[in-house]
Specification:
The chain contains five helices and nine strands. Helix 1 (2-9) crosses helix 2 and helix 2 (19-28) packs across helix 4 (108-117). The protein has helices at residues 2-9, 19-28, 82-87, 108-117, 119-149; strands spanning 30-34, 39-41, 49-55, 58-64, 67-74, 79-80, 94-97, 101-107, 157-158. It is globular and about 50 Å long.
Length: 163
């Protein structure tokens, strides 16, 4: 449990949360083990949780015109799925385990339990999630601007591993 608390403390999304709050969230969460070549979730799936990658690497993919394109690679200590916890919409991308992966899965119900227990800490994590989503939006805006200025460059198509 201490290693997990240290992992979360090192992440901006859990910044300034008290150790007892992180311990509470971990007690409310589950662990997802996803084999290489399998999806954590697919674009369009209903969303009820976010993931904090503990082991392995995962690819964030976006479908376009029947093909998959790589948006980002996730490594241990990074999170994904937080956007849908904030906007309550379907998954906007797919996340594929490139290696055998293990991730902490925090559900909307675990966040609601934190809301009931400690509104201040709940508010802090919501603000941190907003900052993370904003950081990613800023990065996407820069990539879009760069593509427009340079006449558009094509994203790299991602070949899904055969299963």
């Amino acid at each position: 449990m201490n290693a997990r608390i240290e992992l979360l403390q090192a992440m901006p999304i859990f910044g300034a949360l008290r150790e007892e709050t992180l311990d509470f969230l971990l007690g409310q969460s589950s662990v997802a083990a996803v084999p290489a070549g399998q999806f954590f979730f697919r674009e369009g799936d209903e969303a009820r949780s976010m993931f904090v990658l503990e082991e392995g690497k995962a690819a964030v993919l976006k479908a376009w015109d029947g093909r998959q394109y790589l948006l980002a690679m996730m490594a241990p200590g990074e999170c994904f799925g937080e956007m849908s916890l904030m906007d309550m919409h379907q998954r906007s991308a797919s996340v594929l385990a490139m290696d055998p992966c293990r991730a902490i899965e925090l559900s909307t119900s675990s966040l609601f339990s934190l809301y009931e227990k400690d509104l201040e800490q709940f508010t802090l994590i919501q603000m941190n999630m907003g900052r993370e989503v904003s950081r990613r939006l800023r990065h996407a805006d820069e990539r879009l601007f760069e593509a427009q200025v340079t006449g558009g460059r094509r994203m790299t198509e991602f070949a899904l591993p055969s299963t």
